[in-house]
Amino acid sequence: MNEDKFNSNAKSIIHDVNNLLSNILKSAEFIRSDSKNLNDYIEIIISNSLTSARLLENILHPSDLNLKPTSLDQICKGVLSEFRLVTKKNIDFKFVAAENSSVVNVDDFQIRRVVHNLILNAVESIENSGRIIVKISSPREGETMLEITDTGVGISESEIKNIFKTGFTTKSVSGNSGLGLSHSREILKKHRAELSCKSVKNVGTTFTIIFTLNDSKIRAASDKKILLAEDDPTLNSLLTDTFFDYGFEIDSVSDGSKILEKLYSSKNYSLLILDNKMPGKNGITLIKEIRENKIKIPIILMTGASTEEFESEANLDFHLIKKPFRTEELMEIIQNKS
User: Fold this and answer.
1) Among 206, 271, 278, which Cα is nearest to 235's?
2) What b/e string do you get for 114-136 counting C-beta neighbours within 10 Å, with b at 16 or more?
3) Which of 50, 104, 309, 332 is the residue whose CA sits 20 to 30 A from 245?
4) How far is CA 80 from the centre of its chain?
């Protein structure tokens, strides 16, 4: 990375970190005076602290995008919840969810930064009271659109031509560099998404992001039907909810002996995820029977045991994941098997 690009990236990250630190500071102040929403404020502190750490690490170690199927609804709901808690202005925050799945193939950390920046701009444009509407829709097949509309002071025609330029700002508050919008657009371009703005002075502003879902892996992931076999009821429920949030169709069982019956009765499953130790039949036994019956479904085997004991079974064509595992790790494996 050349020096100019490094400095621009560093300044943008500092800008974002300062916003995150403001949330942390405000949450700490609220905790001191308001115990009613204690857990919510603690979650903001934890979330913003972790995000700040990743941003600072990115200054010296910029990384490629970590793309995975991600619920845009969940990102927007999370960011809006933070602003509802820490904003002292009288603002009515409204969220309009998509009628269909809002799963997009993105780096959720980076897109959260963008959504946070845009909502922060909307909050700052409102002087005392107003409304912010965050809406997700699918205007055309293969597209997901995110609109953030405020009833703030608006942007003049002469200013709107420059808002995406590095260093430009319409804010009078000292310390706001205006890097948020330029860097947000840069992040979205890497995702093959477009950011645009429409505004009327003294009426309000709408920022629009259009995600183009033209990646075959996105379509494969969103259409994938997963068969999950896990006998622990808590983990079964958590994994089922996780897959649902990522836009997958999920069917789950808790007894290994039911797996073959499920696979024979339905040809629609495109992935099998199973625990190795289950009542009825264990995972390795099931995989052997599945392969002996010439069923070519991709399989992910979950285990809490040492992975060494499975080395002799490599010829069975399955992917092993060791418990405990992060959701991101599992989703990366699923995407690679699409």
Assistant:
1) 278
2) bbbbbbbbbbbbbeeebebbbbb
3) 50
4) 14
Q: How far apart are CA 195 and CA 208, in angstroms?
A: 6
pLDDT at residue 203 greater than cutoff 60 = yes
CATH 3.30.565.10 fits 66-215, yes or no: yes
In this structure, the chain runs to a length of 338
Distance from C-alpha of 171 to C-alpha of 232, rounded to nearest angstrom: 53
Where do the structural domains in the chain lie, given as residue ranges? 1-63, 66-215, 224-336
Q: Using one digit for the tens of pLDDT, what is the confidence trace for 52-98?
A: 776 776 666 555 677 778 889 988 988 898 888 878 899 999 999 98
Q: What are the strands of the beta sheet with 129-137, ordered from one edge?
A: 90-96, 129-137, 143-150, 204-212, 193-200
Q: Which two structure tokens, joined as six digits, stand for 179? A: 């890097």
pTM here is: 0.55
Chain centroid offset of residue 48 CA: 15
CATH class of the structural domain 224-336 = alpha beta
